[in-house]
Amino acid sequence: MQVKELAARVQPELVELRRYFHQHPEPSFEEVNTGKRIAAELEKLGISVERKAKTGVVGTLKGGKPGRTVALRADIDALSIQEETGLPFASENKGFMHACGHDAHITCLLGAAKILAQLKDEIPGTVKFIFQPAEEIAHGAKLMVEEGAMEGVDGIFGMHVWGDLPAGKVCVDAGPRMASADMFTITVEGKGGHGSAPHQGVDAVVVAAAIVMNLQTIVSREFSPLEPVVVHVGKVVAGDRFNIIASRALMEGANRCFNPEIRRKLPEIVRRVAENTAATFRATAQVEYHFGCPPTINDGELAAIAQGAVKKLYGEEGLAPMPLLTGSEDFPFYQEKAPGAFAFLGVCNPAKGTCWPQHHSHYTIDEDALQVGAAVYAQFALDFLAAK
Ligand code: NI
User: Which among 17, 66, 213, 295 would be 20 to 30 A from 259, CA to CA?
Assistant: First the structure.
């Protein structure tokens, strides 16, 4: 029996699983019961299980034939959002919700495990099922990799459900797909004094305002207009009172881009602009830069295998285009160890009211897409292992 038929056969179980996980969301690194249930489901299939990254799970299925190793990845954490869907299986964990569809990711990957376990004897190699905690705080993938989840892996495939994409359609184009996200803080030191005598002080509020404005010229004047870059200051804290000159300002911001070369240059540019702007006004600025997630860039060969898998399952119409996303993922940490491709699975069906932005309190999915996700994971694994 082929993957598509096996996926259709497990679909009722997938709906049940998705509703279970949806009803019991757990936040980053606290996915204790989620992890236990995933491990139990894998063990039922005869898949060996290791626990990693506190609450993560790695299942290993050795095929009947020798070959390479492919990893399939799902993230498993929920968000601190109060659910407002009114669904009969809405969150029972007050204040937490699977509002990014990670409940669907768990389910699709368990579905792939159910499919591949039945095809075990035919599989030329090994399939690793990586259920990763704490994607929402961008720590889970890194820790999974540090704890050896990628050892011996030759290629990795991940997937995210997406509320803008028609239900059941898949987009897995080659090249950049999601942006990097890196954080910075700037501390401006001026000199306090009475608000009536500005010449006696160095106003950190004015300096911070000038830095915010000058940082905007990084995007417009330092990089090609054909390269998308976001420089964003999201927090400025300064001053105590209307008639006191602020002696210090604290700023927090984030940079996003799709080009690793630009990403490497940004810390130095932010530092130059902040320090020299501050110096213009007799103040000082100290910049701390923290690299978060790299951009998600799909390997050309793996993206082609994934697109081929979708076409094999659902024909050309199984694929749909989708623009680049300036949001980010921690999936690239796996790609530092092996080539990878990251797909988007559509869950939007206007007739079922499932077209919501990610992280929305009404977020839900067209459950018919679950079998598609499971099938694509499984078919990718088979085609990757068959490729060499
Ligand atoms: Ni997500």
Answer: 213
